[in-house]
Amino acid sequence: MSSPTPSPDSGALPNAVKGILCMITGSAIITLNDTAMKWLTTDGVPVGQVMFIRGCVAIVLVYLTMRRLFGRESLRVNSWKAQLARGFLFWLAAFIYNHALHHLPLATAISLSFVAPLFVTALAVPLLGERVGWRRWTAVLVGFAGMLIMMRPGGDIVLIFATLPIIAAFVGAVRDILTRKMSATETSASILMVTTVMVTLTSVPTAFAGDWIMPEPSHLAIMVAAACCMVLAHYLVIESLRLAEAGLVVPFKYTQLIWGAVIGFAIWGYVPDIWQWIGAAVVIGSGLFIFRREITLARQRR
């Protein structure tokens, strides 16, 4: 499971490239999961039930798949304290963000939550000892500006509600930093297993708070597909943080906005306006600059 430490002669480029590709692919698959969730909830299935059933399926998928591919030893937990802390942070970020979605327009909540890479970049310096130069700092800020152009949040929102996605982003950044630190002792499979179980257990109160609605067979099929997407996406995100510096790979979460625009047009016929395309171009340009900068740094290390 653990990636070997690159030799001095090999440089950091191979793992950096793999980390970026894992984050981009994971972000695309997360969007597929979100699409399934949107489809189910708009079709009348309660959110709590969807999360609970999806989580139960995900637990089975994680256990069977990880054990078969990597062996039972891959699920062994070395630090329960770190594992439970990450699971709690994962749940807390989702809990706060869901409250933000309740009070804010979707575009506003998404826009504000994408300050997470700024938090990760800042926290990676004191907590991980990573070196982030001014060029990558600038690229992250430019990407953030492009995201704002694309989403164009409104200016008439209540301040206390506007802080919710920012707090959720900070909690998510701490979670990502902890994931990076845990990679030295914990396998991606064990991290995914513990987190999936914790998030599923925390969805129990909301799943059974009201009257239980029996899902249709088509709904169950979509939930299974969503569980597959969720498991694979989270595994790829965990691997990306294992393979490369957090300050490098986290900005590529921005690509989720691009995938959302494509899927939104394909399924619901929504066409982004010119400002959203401009914002997307800025985000992509920022990501490409970070990638090019990492290549330059990797060559200098050789």
Helix-strand topology string: HHHHHHHHHHHHH
Shape: globular
The DSSP helix count reads 13
End-to-end distance = 26 Å
Biggest sheet character: none
Low-confidence stretches: 1-12
How many β strands by DSSP?
0
Overall structural domain count = 1
Which oligomerization state do the chains in this entry correspond to? single chain
Helical/strand content category: mainly alpha
Query: Over the alpha carbons, how many angstroms does the gyration radius reach?
Result: 19 Å
Q: Whole-number average pLDDT? A: 79
InterPro entries: EamA_dom (IPR000620), EmrE-like (IPR037185)
Organism: Oceanibaculum indicum P24
GO cellular component, one term: membrane
Protein name: Integral membrane protein
Q: What's the topology here?
A:
Elements: H1 13-42, H2 47-70, H3 80-103, H4 106-113, H5 116-128, H6 134-151, H7 159-182, H8 188-202, H9 204-207, H10 217-243, H11 246-249, H12 255-268, H13 274-301
Helix pairs in contact: 1-10, 1-12, 1-13, 2-8, 2-10, 3-7, 3-8, 4-7, 5-7, 6-13, 8-10
Describe this structure in words.
It is a multi-pass membrane protein. It is a single chain. It contains 13 helices and no strands. It is mainly alpha-helical. The protein has one domain. Helix 1 (13-42) packs antiparallel against helix 13 and helix 8 crosses helix 10 (217-243). The radius of gyration is 19 Å and the shape is globular. It starts with 12 loop residues before the first helix and ends with a helix. Residues 1-12 have low confidence and may be disordered.
Compact summary:
The chain is mainly α and 302 residues long.
